[in-house]
Amino acid sequence: MSARSIASACFAVPAAILFTSVCSLAADYYVNAASRGSSGAGLEPGKAFGTIQEACDVAAPGDVVHVAPGVYFENIQLKNAGQPGRPITFRASDGKQGSVTVTAAREDIRKKSVSWEIVDPALNLYAIPHPAKPSRVLYDGVDLLPYPDLESLKKFRFAAGYPGTLHGFAFSNGTLYVRLHASGRYGSLDPNEHTMAVAPAGSGSRGAAAQIKGPRDYIWGVVTGGPSHVILDGFTFETPGIAAIYAPDGDVTVRNCWFVGCRSGVAGRPVVPDSTKNTNRVTVENCDYHQFPAFDDMKEVIELHRNDPWRADGKQLKQRIYWWQRKGDQEGDGISYTTTYEAGMATDIGNDWVIRRCHVHDALEALSMWGVDLSTNLQVYENRFERLIDNAIEAENRAVNLSFHHNEIVDVFEPFSWQPLRAVPWPGPIYIYENLVLTTPPIQGLWKKTGTVPGVWKLGASERNWQRTDIKLDPHEPVRAPGEGFLAFNNTVICPGSVAITRIQSPSRFFENFFLFNNVFVLDDLSANPADRFANIGFAANVGVFLAPQDPATAAAFTANDGVLLPTVEQIGMLDPGKGDFSPGSQSPAIGKQRPSSPPSALANAGAIVAGKAWTLPPVGPQARGK
After folding, report:
1. What is the Cβ-side half-sphere exposure of residue 516, based on CA atoms within 13 angstroms?
2. What pLDDT sits at residue 204?
3. Do residues 249 and 279 touch, judged by C-beta distance below 8 A?
4. DSSP E strand stretches across 167-214
5. CA Rg, the chain, in Å?
């Protein structure tokens, strides 16, 4: 009798022996793509199911499903739920990247059963018949920029004049066209010599659950109709229409997974202002999310086009951030494709989500407003956010009780954003603490080449908030963060080439309930605009250096309430910043800089790092499992 039969038979015995050791047995199931079409029962490796879906159909609380290496072309619907303490676990047998790949890519193209035809040798332009515009196209995992039309792809330039990246795809009249990077840095220019992953069209524009129209928009739906109690461990997800995993019913853990060519990694149900109706308790841990080579494409566009007039008539484009192609349509810039990259690792985050020990890199955003918008009690910690074109996290529009702490942020344009675009209530309380934020020497002057000076914190409500018909605020009311407010404390920020704050709102409108304290800074200045003195922000006990100060008044704001502004970086007293050791030495003025904080910091010094100890971050990204 199988383990499943034994466990089922328990329900025929008296209740007194219902929970004996025999009855607590759970089944181990096996899946192997090489078994597809066989009649295996799945209870041993030699008789494995051929699809993950077959295992989903029989898995019960406590069961573990082992999935063998292979490529699984499936749209998975898991309707069976686990129980508290007895989850259903799906585990890739080999936890290496790409070993167990679950993909929504068009199968015949990915398997090279059909060939790409070269249609313009001078442009290295290839084509293949295809029914609709895909949301993403990859070649050996390299992301191609979606161009809105064939002419833009041919010119690598959008209709309004914006420069595009030097590889991309376009769809026209039943044909999909691609141009691979002519430098050869990503391999051959012939798509027939790559593994081409062509995604479905996908619904909507943002990559959020609110735009999911059905199973065609995601790869794996954990749709149990109630708390799921499911674990997905070790999979590589590739090119869904929108989300790799759709988990509307909550109580789901996703760990050790890779998200490649995914508009979003994990999506909850469409969020609504009534938080009781949103997705609860999802944990995303030790995962990897990227849109490579988005960051390198940005750098290349800046270097090639920073001196361009941008338009043939010499007029400046409306959107000065001309390297922001993956964001999509920006104020009539002519890019106008409908599948923005402004989504991130998780979207439609509901209540009590945890995102920890993940590596999010080479992307537009890590966690955008389409994920954080109506989140409650979101915890984001011990992650590494790296090489991002825009933000590590956006608190807008109405995140409640958001904690972002003990993260490492490296080469991110503007790491933190508090920029609500809707009616009150606005984001808050927001806690940003004990993070290490760095801009490496090769990137320190990058954005200045575009005439843009990034800020570590992007703060404020635009005047358009007061122009919306659904907002009935006194036009003189200050911009206020609710609850305990916006608190950024005990962060170490070493970002030459950036300023502390990018002000979004008019200088005539005041901030209220915003606090920056106990931080260590190495920045160009407090703001790029000398008129922005921020005297009404609660600065206290900060220690730092401004490398390119514009106005002495900024020093008065920064040094208020026991702050210290120093003339040189050396005087901060970090142990060895040249070798990445930013901890304060025993003589550092950061020692003893404290102000009561909520949640309280255990540090007895300013900055994110315990005095005399090197910064440490737990292992991030997918982890190999023991045998």
Report:
1. 28
2. 76
3. yes
4. 168-172, 175-179, 196-198
5. 26
Task: Give how far Cα 6 sits from Cα of 41, 58, 59, 102, Å.
Answer: 15, 15, 15, 32
In three-state secondary structure terms, 250 is coil
Query: How is 70-94 classified by DSSP, letter by letter?
Result: EEEE--EEE----BTTB-EEEEESS
Instruction: Please report the pLDDT score of residue 609 as a whole number.
Output: 95
Q: Which two tokens stand for residue 237?
A: 């997800």
Q: State the pairing for strand pair 218-222/76-78.
A: parallel
Whole-number pLDDT of residue 469: 60
Phi then psi for residue 168, to 5 deg, are 180, -175
Can you tell me the distance from the alpha carbon of 574 to that of 591, in angstroms, rounded to the nearest whole number? Answer: 11
User: What was the pLDDT predicted at 532?
Assistant: 81
Assigned token pair, 138? 């990859």
Q: With beta carbons less than 8 A apart as the criterion, state whether 465 and 396 touch.
A: no
Is 483 among the domain residues? yes
- Find where tokens 């303490």 sit: 85
- Token pair listed for 403: 């904690």
Mean pLDDT for the chain? 89
245, burial (CB in 10 Å: exposed 0-12, middle 13-18, buried 19+)? buried
Tell which residue, 346, 189, 323, 184, has the closest CA to residue 259.
346
DSSP letter string, 295-341: HHHHHHHHHHHTT--SSTT-PPPS-S-TT-GGG---SS-S---S--S
Cβ neighbourhood burial of 129 (10 Å; 0-12, 13-18, 19+): exposed
Q: How far apart are CA 624 and CA 541, in angstroms?
A: 42
Bridge partners (DSSP) listed for residue 101:
71, 236
Q: What b/e readout covers 453-481, taking b as 16+ CB neighbours within 10 angstroms?
A: bbbbbbbbbeeebbeeeeeeeeeeeebbb
Domain membership flag for residue 248 = no
For residue 401, CA distances in Å to 376, 380, 427, 482 come to: 6, 11, 8, 10
> Under the phi-then-psi rule, with left for phi > 0, alpha for psi from -120 to 50, and beta for the rest, what region is 467?
alpha
107-122 confidence digits (pLDDT tens) = 999 999 999 999 999 9
Amino acid letter for position 112: K
CA-wise closest residue to 255 among 356, 350, 393? 356
What is the distance between the alpha carbons of residues 326 and 320, in angstroms, rounded to a whole number?
Answer: 15
Split into its structural domains, the chain has a count of 2
Closest CA to 190 of 129, 124, 130, 142: 124
Beta pairing, strands 236-238 & 100-103: parallel
Per-residue model confidence (pLDDT) at position 474: 60
In a domain, 354, yes or no: no
Low-confidence ranges of the chain (pLDDT < 70): 1-24, 37, 207-209, 310-320, 329-338, 468-476, 596-600, 626-627
Amino acid identity, position 599: P
CB atoms within 10 A of CB 122: 5
Ramachandran angles phi, psi of 333, nearest 5°: -80, -5
Distance CA(610)–CA(438), nearest Å, equals 17
Range of the domain at 577: 391-627
Q: What does DSSP assign to residue 170?
A: E
pLDDT, tens digit (0-9, with 9 covering 90-100), for 220-260 = 999 999 999 999 999 999 999 999 999 999 999 999 999 99
> What is the predicted pLDDT for the residue at 470?
63
